[in-house]
Batch of 4 targets.
Target 1
Amino acid sequence: MASRHDDRVPVDGDATPTTGRWEGLRRHRRALFAVAVILLLAQMTVAMVTTAVEQTPTIDEPVYAGTAVVYVQQHSLRYNPEHPPLGKLIIGGGMLFARPHLDPAFQGDQTELGRHLLYESGNDPWRVMLWARLPVIVLTLLFGLVVLAFTRDLVGRVGALVALALYAFSPDVIAHGSLATLDVPASGFLLTSVWLVWRARRRPRLYVPLAGLALGAAVATKMSTLPAVPVLLLLAVLSVRHAGRTAADTEPRDDRAAAEVQPPRPAVVAPDHGGGALRLLGTGAVAAAGMTLVAVATVWAAYLAVDPRLRWTAPADLPAVHGLRALLVGLLPLPEPYRDGMRVQFGFEDTVWQGFLFGRLYRGSLWYYLPAALLVKTPLGMAALWAAGTTALTAVRRLRPAVPYLLLPPVVLLAAAMNGSRDLGVRYALFVPVFLAVVAGCAVVVRRRWAGIGAAALVLFVAVSSLLTYPYYLPYANEAFGGPAGTRLRLHDSNVDWGQDLGRLADRLRREHPHEKVWLVYKGAGVPAAYGIDAADPRTVPPERVHGLLAVSDTAIAKADSRLKALLAGSRPVDDVGHSITVFRRP
């Protein structure tokens, strides 16, 4: 009879030729996998760093940068209460290396604070913004590793590479991952929490607390992640319940008892089964409660990291909230600055904003705005792989347990965002490409040659589409909608023109239009004079005095009033800067 030791892994001394070949093949595949991961993240790094170096501040960035400096230097929470501090602390970590000067006696609102930091304090705005953006770039790359690990847990290395490729070539992820903003950090922390909850199906004692930490980081970065909290807690209950069932099924039994044929005893088994299920649910509920405590503690820690004394004075113009909103704000066990920040966000939601979709300017919001904007700004190959991955996820039996983990959080968050009042960009749904990259990786489970070839072709299509838009990722649109040059005809604001190309405009004017009279209608947070642009606003003088070059932000064109429309009607487009600023010539 063969010994059970015959199945041991061979060592160098007794390795067979077949075993050696298999081991060599495994090492070869691992090396190729590592090289592919490095190459994908390297191209993403180049894309984001190039974008960060070339772009001037977008509208939100000076506010976050100024607030981060106040956090680090003055330990004050008085600015930007509508967003929790963690994301800005991360930005501030990079700015420690820039050593920006900020007058402690400065008085002004948060918009004035950002302008004062960048343009009125003797700081180099290019250097300050680069150091503010670098921590977000690093974090975006780390979240790429989460996408890779999550997908590998589900479907292995090939699917993991597909998922990472979609993430690394995503124009929206690259565009916002290269900015000192909060959208990528919030989405990435949330995906990390879901991944850790998924892993808690095997080791709940380790991964549930870590999932709570990541969930707390998401909530401490952006309040828009709050609707996902009950979803994550439900998933924690499911994971702990699954772990308990698995442990019960694999519990060692006495060999002699197992060998005996035992008659069924339904009167005893049924009550035990029900009691066991209830115990598992109870254990899951306790784990979810513990996860909640860790998340809440993380939010408190973010505020205490700014000011250990938690000094806070509510703004004088703090909006009043009523009904369910007031109940929610009052019940949350979070710091007072957080709850007041929620009141500010509710005030934003009560404001009527302008939107622009497919050439139509409107007031208010459209429930289908975000799906329509995602349709425009998602690479076609990526959308096809999202659909294929979703089909595989729901159709393949072994993947079905992952459906609530991968689909429920983005669906709930998208529904909440679609109900919002601000139709200002797909950045409000940036979690969609982040989560669905993992979903798309599941498409490789279809064991057909045509499926593998099709997936590879679609990934290549996405890569080419992304590379062709370099380095203008913010105004990206897919080929069906005319590419980046056509985005301004269909969308506005952070979808295309967020003030990022003021520096590029300055370079273009110096290089191709020197010594010409320039008029400028700019939508952004930058100061044109700081980049060497000597221009006046044409709306401040009679139209007959406006001659020469007229540079206009594309969002301003989309929202043009009658005066600007009249100026544009008598002008001829002669140049385009970054697909976000159009240069006209007026005779």
Note: The radius of gyration is 27 Å.
Target 2
Amino acid sequence: MAAGLELVVVCPGSRSGPLAVAAGLLEGQSLRLRTALDERSAAFFALGHGRASGHAAAVITTSGTAVANLLPACVEADLGAIPLLLISADRPQRLKGCGANQAVNQEQFLMASVRLLLQGHAEGLAAMAAGELEQLATQALAATTVCPGRPPGPVHLNLPIEEPLHGDGPALESTRALATRLEAAQRARDTGAGPEPGSAGAGNQTWTRPLGVPAIGSGGLDPDQPGLVVAGPWRGLPQHGPAYREAVAAWQRRSGWPVLADGLSGLRGWPGLELVTVADLLPDPVPAALLAPQVLRLGPLPASRRLQQLLRCCGGRQLLITEGEPRHLDPLGTASGQWPAGLAAWIAQLPPEACVGAPGSASLALARRWHVLERQLQARLDTALAAPAWGEPALARQLSRLLPPSLPLVIANSSPVRDWDSFAAAAAPFREVYAFRGASGIDGTLSLACGVAEAVGAAVLLCGDLALLHDSNGWLWRRQLGGRLTVVLIDNGGGGIFEQLAIRPQQPAPLDFERLFAMPQAVDPLALAAAHGVPGREVAAAAELPLALSWALEQPLALLRLCSDRRRDAAARQALRRMASVPAPPP
């Protein structure tokens, strides 16, 4: 459907029983129904689906600590601007604050992260009229998507339900009516009807215009003078992606500015763009010949420390454009303004003279320097990371070429997402790349990927061993997953990201690095997957990877285990950076 509620995930519980029955009544009519015994996994599954589809999925839980398990996904939905509807059953007000079983202050659990908290009648849904149910359903669904002054995000709908909970009681009739109203609200959203969400009961968030920027105009940028485009992770709705990419191409054609594209920018591999993808391998300090007096920054700050250093060195005029995100996204403090209405809207309101003309000679000269550097470093990486090279940097490059074109990729946080940014092949075909960098946690990784696969039909997850083990309940999605998922596990025996930080002692010392930081786990991931009915294979060398990948992509859900040495990988990254910083010989 074009918008609205398409998927509901039901978690077990008695108090939420009427809600579960109501969802079941609509299954096959307007909703897809999935079930999950782990509320945390359910919320991340719905979050992955919302990220890939652009529409909120709903999670239904019972009362008590079940609601607390929604918090990690709610935090990511908030900071990542992902639509998500969290529906919790609750005890009626008469059972609150008197020692009744499972009666907690759950309405406050998610307050700091939700766009809106909405609650049913304190005496229960049976006390609500049909019109009130309709307004509640419409408001909850609408508030998960873009509305003036707010990005998409999570909404908490907390519904007290009085006994009797089952059979033909009034609670069941009321929740059946609520389900019908949700369906009606969804149809209204499909046709563009329905009121805008209100602010009553909103969470503890303040939405303000963070930086002074002209309401119209170029924001101080001059396309006739040299500049840079720095594209951070894409954080818009997927349906807005094509217009965004075309807007980037239009600005590059007009200005000639080089586009430095983060691995999550949604730009890599897109036809018509000439990109720089090696910015994370820049020497320290950044050569002055690569700096520019003005920068167009797109989206959140990239994770690359070298790109951050570049932005500090450029100074000058830096306009930050976000895709419907009004919150302050400039931790460096270098942006002179922030435009939250998106790049396509910004270009559309530019004066005509800013949109017509050819790039200046100084701009083209700066672009040539960047593109020469790009070609030189890509050639060096091709030599250093070609098969039979093995390890995390080599695997990122090889996988970027081996995965079928357009097959979406989900990347776990920590090392995998950084290696993809630095070492994926620039010539690799375009694909949607999903990573959840709002709060950048490793929790919920497998469930997120399952939700993405459910939304788009097929996907690949690239992750580390601790991230996969942390969400091992995600394997339970195997029996009802509506899409194919291939899990590519880089197993380096613990937290490889800590090998890249100045933590491990160089000499024998009291610090127990392995126990306190790396935390290797004595778990066989292939056996754990097999216990859930998921087939898997070990891949021991680069020559085995193409055939193993072809096999895995044919399975509904499969695991490929690729073992590497995290200390050796850390040393390889340092060697690659040293190689990249060596000046090329004169032509």
Note: The longest strand covers residues 484-491.
Target 3
Amino acid sequence: MALLVPVPAAAAPAPRAAPEASAPAALAAWKAPLSTRGRYIVDADGTRFKLKSGNWHGASGTWDGSGSADDPAHQHAGEDGHRAPLGLDRVPMSRILDDFRRLGLNSVRLPFSDEMIGDTRPVTGLTANPRLDGLRPLEVFDRAVEALTDAGFAVVLNNHTTTTRWCCGVDGNERWNSGQSTRKWLDDWAFMAARYRTNPRVVGADLRNEVRRDVLDDPNWGLGDAHDWAAAAQQAGDRILTDANPNLLIMVEGINWAGLPVDGLWHDRPLLKPVATLSTTLVRSHKLVYAAHFYGYTGPRHSGASGIGETSDARYRDLSRADLFAVMRDTASYVADTPDRHFTAPVWISEFGVAKDADAAERAWFARTVDFLVDHDLDFAYWPAVGFQDDDRGNRWGLVRYDTAGGARVVSDADDWRAGPWRELTAADGRQGTVEQVRTWSMLKATHADANRSLRAAADWDNGARKLSCPDDQRLIGVSRGGQGGLCTDAGLADPAAAPAPGAVASEAHVTADWARGYTKYQCPAGQFMSGYSVRGNRVSAALCSTARIPLAGAGRTLWDDRGDTRPASGEGGDYAEGFFKAQCDADEYAAGLAFSTALGRGGTADALYCRKLPDPATPTAP
């Protein structure tokens, strides 16, 4: 969660007995694992599964960073999670899950810290769940995961912090490699993903919470250094899907903050803006979900601070409805709203929230944000699902808040102004039923490292060269003249490859016609298609060719990119190599070869792409 700015508490109403709770409704049936189709998350039957989530925090820490971590006085807002999901000292876990169902949730974002994994100190103080006392924090986390999934909830694991403490701000947990190495973080993720592999209702891995600037450095998206969040997320997602659990969704949050929050100096909240020109392509298609956070007290260029770190920039709560909608669209929802592009994916607003005692500006912001989520049919996760209260006093953000005797105040209470917007949000199912298959486009970019997304190809299929390869259920359809870019798709032919591993072609041995006179041509053998290529600098090194599962022999044509773009007028796939000329076959074609020249002034760049027609889908093909 972003650093909270204290809000003056309103006068507490007179204590009242909580009404007897009705039995919670059963969760709708769904079938794991989850995957994506275009902008939607779907279950194993292809039915839309909209994440209506709550954040159940505590295991990642509630300590505020001052004094003793075991002192109740030094827990955020006086809420002590005891290094476990919040509320287990006040009510039985089964009661919390029943309340989640009553709230209309179908999924839970469950934060953890890297420290939690190896913490051997026994948890104490969970008086309402005595069987959990004495367990290690990870073992309590296990029990929470098991209880949630047994009750039918989908669980998304969230790496919230490095150390077990309250987030956020400049707290030593700003990046995935704050206070630890990237390798340690990757190993921790592989451990956590594998730990729950046999539990199909653990559906996602939210890789890191609110990546942001530390005292000295900004995170970035694509610079190739130790602070490159795009590269780190790529590594983690691929590691999880190959070594730990191929069924998980991979949630990638945008950069939450960069720059110095000082008037006159550059600062920004980029969120998902960079994804338009550098999207993530995982080794397994249909597993990527992007995420972003919004709070009224923060802003597009406002850190959310009061006093030190506060600037004159507008907060989200200061924006008009039209301006708020424009900002949320430009920094987040465009990824889901724009179809048929390499960046098109579901967007999960995995944190947003407001206090019951919020002022008028915060209330207006929350109502507008709910309207936006409904209008754009976005997945969501409210922060926090659970909180504490004493006669309705205290931190009043939680959807359900428990007192020491187990009495609850809930967002649906008659005196809670949030009840109306919350009902609107949870009742809005949006798109329902079966989601049709849509064509997929995936971007490759090998500027700083190999962009090998094939699991079938050898890891180093062209030794010493920079390699680009498509996921195994896609084919290469576009290349760039410089910039080490490529575009993959499954349009017109899903899962195109047969079993043999792809192979590199670095000669003209398979050229059947002079389709680029005067140029060196690397063409795939008969019956094969390009699934990647490699470069040394910008000079073409080899074509990667895969055997097709159907006969290939369509008519061919040459596309040139040496003087400009040669791409479909529709713009399908999107700009996968901004600032460079590109050649891209049509969606009913496949790339069979590429050509280059090392003549003076040419430099060996990919100057031409040889495209051939795919078989007509109505034409019978050999098995």
Note: The first strand starts at residue 35 and ends at 37.
Target 4
Amino acid sequence: MTSTRTKQVCMPLAAALALGLVAGSALAGGTLRVAMTASDVPTTTGAPDNGYEGVRFLGYPVFEGLVLWDLKRTDKLADIRPGLAERWEQDANDKAKWIFHLRKGVKFHDGSDFNADAAIWNLDRYFKKDAKQFDPPGGAVAQARNPFVAGYRKIDDNTIEFTNPRPLSYFPNMLPYMLYSSPAQFEKTGSWAEFAKSPSGTGPFKITEFKPRVSVTLSRNDAYWEKARVPKLDRMVLFPMPEATTRLAALRSGQVDWIEVPPPDAVPSLKSAGFNIVANSYPHSWPWTFNLAKEDSPFRDIRVRHAINFCVNRDGLVTLLNGLAEPAYGLFKKADPFFGNPKQQYTYDPAKAQALLKEAGYGPDKPVKAKIMISTSGSGQMLPIPMNEYLQQNLKECNFDISFEVVDWGTMLVALRNPPTASQALGVDAMNISLHISMDISQFALFNLSGNAPPKGRNWPNWKNAEFDAVIERIEKSTDPEEIVANIRKAHEIFVDDPPWLFIVHDRNARAMTKKVKGFTSAQSWFQDFTPVYME
């Protein structure tokens, strides 16, 4: 199924390719051409849409936060590192406050200074509704990703302070998602719509050409403040291509050098043709998130939630995907230090699933009927249509009767930001949405604390578990790293035993590229560093 918007996006791109505007011969040397899964070019204002794929390509390469991700390692989960702030600490007298010391000498792409005034101006963009620069779409995303900003103030030209509603040990981990744009460039352009045409951030790349619905060109920022990370590439050109077959054809024909999410059935032939398939184990979940607020949802019964987790043939789905995914038995992977030892050790056990459903009053004559919202494509969604069709057939053997509400990616993101009982949810019993929240404790808490239901936070299922909340509270107040890790394990055990999700697979973040692409290493993160990449 292809959405109307997808058709609108692909047609201008096809015309551009046909005219040779992005032909390989014209972009030899240091230009990398990438086909994204996004259905449109993500917004270029420093508050990218199109999910976290938008942040991956039109976020960190161009704009930065006070805190960034360390994306150098391939053998362990990415951790945070200093970004536009050199260091930070909790206030010694009030643990609900954090002090950030800003990096000196940083310039925006337009040559203006990044300092405390620029930082406060950007925070007003996200949180102060009567500010001239207030950005309703960007503010909605920022507040959903970080609902714990109760206040902020300038201390001096190079220092700012945040106030949280309560002590939060993991608050710095939430700041990579809030990016900073040039106030001077906004004043020059007059609006976010005009700013988007000539954006200005502080990142290693700067946007030099923007073609709505077609492409965006990023060029090396030779004046980048972190000299060791000045990009090797001259340019990156990003194209939205939501259809997997379109991306595949573009790669094979030489119209692009790199595609996100290659079709699994094409992997053997791509390898035979000399293309590289790059993947890594990383913190990205592909679940069904249950609607626990809907009064007639069968998933309100924990026996049904356990049963469906025992019915899924995860290994069969991984085989269908040619190994481009890993079985998921919780939010974290079993090899992760945070997995713990939950009581529920999910395996493919249809007999156990049927027994649980019988206990809950279901059987061959009374199957569990549930409607699932799925997307046609989207950031991290892998191949949602064939994967969900596989699950639909798989779950029949345990007496689940699954139907689908198929929407485009933008519609699903709107549903995620609204309560599951709202009209945007379209009456579904669950949502299949890819989530990267196993990167760190801040996202684990944001998506699952009882008090973080939409529109305030990201707990779309409206899952409520008092024991989980209590463990997270201990984490928030702690300053002992070992105690924090032990409590994360405990929280994850609760999450698995009282599951608000159907745990299906972890994506392996696969991408296919020509052998001319050099220098890329796949970090254990949803985000990636493009600065070491170059074209042979």
Note: Confidence is low (pLDDT under 50) at residues 1-12, 14-28.
